[in-house]
Every structure is written in C-alpha cells, then in structure tokens.
## 1
Amino acid sequence: MTYQDIDPVKLSQSLIQCPSVTPNQAGALDLIQKILEANGFDCTRLPFKEKDTHEVDNLYACWGNGAPNLCFAGHVDVVPPGEKSLWEEDPFSGKIVNNILFGRGAADMKSAIASFISAAIKYVDEIKVNHSGTISFLITSDEEGPAINGTKKVLEWLNKNNIKIDDCIIGEPTNPNKLGEMIKIGRRGSLTGRLEVFGKEGHVAYPEIADNPISKLINIVKVLNEEKLDNGNQYFQPSNLEITTIDVDNEITNMTPLSAKAVFNIRFNDQHTSDSLKEWLNKVCIQHSENFKLDISVSGESFFSGPGKLSTIVAQSINDELGVDPELSTNGGTSDGRFIKNFSNVVEFGLIGKTMHKLNENININDINSLTNIYFKVIKKYFS
Ligand SMILES: [Zn+2]
C-alpha cells in the first residue's frame, strides 16, 4: 500500500464506519495500524485497564529515528450519536452528499487523523533516505470519556521506555467556522465544585432557633458569582466561574431545610492553578459557614505552550495553503493537551468544530484535502 491508496477522504469515511463510541475502538485502530505498518511505521498497541474502569486500546506508531520527534496525537473514539433517526444520514455510514461528509467523528476528529496519516505517508514516500528524526502517532480511544486509560497512560509508557516526543500536533477541531482561522497554543483549566452547606431544620415562625443553610449558601454563591478572577491576558480570556445548579429540594413551606447545595464550574487561565482556586474557595466558604462540605474535581490544569517554532511552522503552512493568518488562541474546552503539555510542546490544529458532538456532524471534503496539504507542509518544514 502506498500513498496513492491513502486518500484522506476515503480513509475518513472508513474510520467513520467504525462505530467507535468511547471506549471502543471498533476496528478504527486496527485499520490505522494496518495502513501505517504497510508504510514502514512500527506500531505498538497499548491497552490499559485500571480497577473499575473500561479497558482502553491505544496505539503508538513511529517512523524514522531519534530526535526531533514530531508526534500527531488524536482520538478515534466519538461521543454517542444520540437519536439516530434524527440524523439526515446514518451517523456511521460516512456518506458524502454534495461534497459534505456526514458522520459522527467527521469533525471531531477522524478526518483529521486521516489527513495526518495521508500527509505523513506522502512525506515518507517522498523522502525515503536523508531523513533524520521521527514522525509518530499517539492515538487513543478514550478522549471523550474518563480519559484515564488513554493518552495519559501512553505518555507514561513512552516516558518509561525513554521515548521522547519533542513537538506534538493535536488534530482537534480548532477552527470555529473556517479552515485556517485558529490554532490553539494553550487551553484553560477546568474545575468543578460541589458545595453543600448544612444548618438546622426549624419552623419558619421561629427563625431564632433554626439555622437556615439557604441564607448562607446565598451569601457564598453571591461572592463566587461576583468575584472577578482576573482580566485575562494577551492569549487568554478572563477566567470565569459559572454556577450550574442550586438545589434545596424542600417541599415543606413552613420549615427551613437541613442543607442546601450548589454546583459550579471554573474555566481558568494560566494566572491560576487548581490549588490556588481551592484555597480561595475554601476561604469564601469558611467566611460564611462553619458547617459545609466542598468537593472539588479538577479535569485539567490550564497550560500555555507559547508561540514558538511549531506554532510558527503551522501558521506558515496554513498561510501557504489558504492565504490566511490564523489566530493563536487558548479558548474552548480541555483536550488531551492537558496531559501532553507535561512531555512536549503542543499545538492544536484540525478541522472545523461547528458541528462536533451535534446531530448531522459533517465536514466539507475540500477542507479534508486542504488540511492534508497543510499537515504535509508542516512535516516538510519541520524536518527541513
Ligand atoms: Zn475531540
């Protein structure tokens, strides 16, 4: 099998036809491995499992030798399609209608994986000799899920085996509306807080002997809601706390409840860490209540990998192909970049995110071909 066989659009279709809802790879990793092996890549399958979690299959593939190692990272798993009958085309058919490829994973992010495979194989085919450095793939089937047995564990495995990644491109859909408009060079962190404030139940006619937790919760939530966490900076928008629910579940109209709960999420930039925020949250709660429980879960710290060699190469390649200068941004949700940033420079660039996780997820096939050209230029510039 040579580059000629690796049409990125056809490969995108084949990958979409694998119904790889997290954590199942459903044949997608097998297909990628088959293609990469046929083109001289060394492939290692890395299934991981932990107690009380699903086993997750992962793939690390590499071609060439030594440094620098340019890695493409991505995920073959997809979110569930939802109500299939509401889709215009079957979400796992990979059907193309008027140049538009439909299917779950079309945008996020099977077509980007197909593009990078096609670009890498074209490069390998063209270069054959006189190459120093490594092209690698780190592909997981658990990015949309708990992400416990996926990219994080592969990185630990690489580290244990003294395999170093220098620069990493993640193929997440980074463009809001048009290919080439946005590269991501960092991400905000995300923290969820679950707060329960306790009081004493009592009759509303005798508030002096009751201890109403709702009043205390309101005071806390008011501070959390009004506090300006920062003003943002050149690359990050301001950090933001959103209260997602407030619950008391008290159906009795003449009694105060025993406890009151609120849940909130903070998306924070690089001016905070989850630890600094935890400290602030605890301080606010202590000021307004002596009896509360605050559970905090952190799904990722913020990171910033700065404008550098890799983002410059990606931006130049986009400009060469499309004639536009992409914005270097850090907005949006978290990605596996939160793990990779501890091991490598990270830049994210993929397709258009407008339809991801939605009904009728789709991508224009011209964009798949352009992305392939951009990735090819990136690889060429990177190793030249
Ligand atoms: Zn994704």
Note: The two ends are 26 Å apart (CA to CA).
## 2
Amino acid sequence: MSALVIDAFEFGRSNGHRDGTMPVARMARLSKDCADDSGELSWSVDGSTISHGHAALTVAVAGSVQLVCQRCLNPYVFAFEASTMLVLGKDDDQADEIEDMLDDESIDVIVGSRTCDIGDLIEDEALLALPQVPKHDVCPDTKLLDALNADKPSPFAGLKDIKTDTPNQQ
Ligand SMILES: [Zn+2]
C-alpha cells in the first residue's frame, strides 16, 4: 500500500496530519492541463471532526504550474494556493444528508474511503484551482515585439558596409 493511502475516516477522527511535495509530472490529469510537467506542488492534509461526529479532511495545495494563455497562446507561470474542507460521508445517501445539514458552499462532502489516496485529493484540489480559461492578466504584445525586431538592422549588415567601404577610403 502506498504511503499516501489512508483510512480517511480514521485519519479525520485522529486529527491526522500529512504534508509533502509532489512533482507535477506525477499527476497525469494535472500535467495534461499544463504547458509542461515541470515544477512541484507542496501539499498538506489535516484530519478533523465536525458536528455530529463526521470526519473531515482539509486538503491544501500551493505551488506554480505552466499554463498556456488562451489569448496569445504563450505559456506563463500560474501560481496558486488553495484549500478545501472535505467532509466524509459513508455513502452517497449520507453524503447528501451532510450536505443539507451543512448548507455551506465552501465545504465539499465526498464519500469517504478506508483506502483513500491522498495523491488524488491533492490533484483534484490543484485542478479546481486552475482558471477555466487560462490567460495573462496583460498579454505581452508579441506582434509589437516582432515588428521591433524586424525593423532592427542586422549587426552583420553593418559589418558588410565597413568591409566594402574600407577599400574606397584608401
Ligand atoms: Zn497571453
């Protein structure tokens, strides 16, 4: 069993804590949404118990990934920090009951597992933190940059002039 697999109910009731770092490359679903799979995320999972004795996990992730701007199609670094409390239900029915009882949009209720892979929870949290349409706050104006570069005389053009001019001056 992987070190990242926990009994989610037990982890919550015993106020468990785990933290670490995970390379983006190890998260297939996340890397698919990124320009490349460089970088790593730091994460932590904390167990707790909420009202009525329901176990909960608070999953936090922070780090940065490379996304592709949908406006100019250039890659850029997206830094984020996110955390969500996941309350555990034993099955779908209980999860629905807890959801109604909490009536809190910021808390998610999931069906807990005794063989819960923390890695999946971390990746889910990171995916939720990504913008739906990734884009720069302000795109670098590449057209303007390209135009500037095209207007600039080549340094070799200058050398050629010197070479051809020199014999005439003598
Ligand atoms: Zn852009």
Note: The radius of gyration is 26 Å.
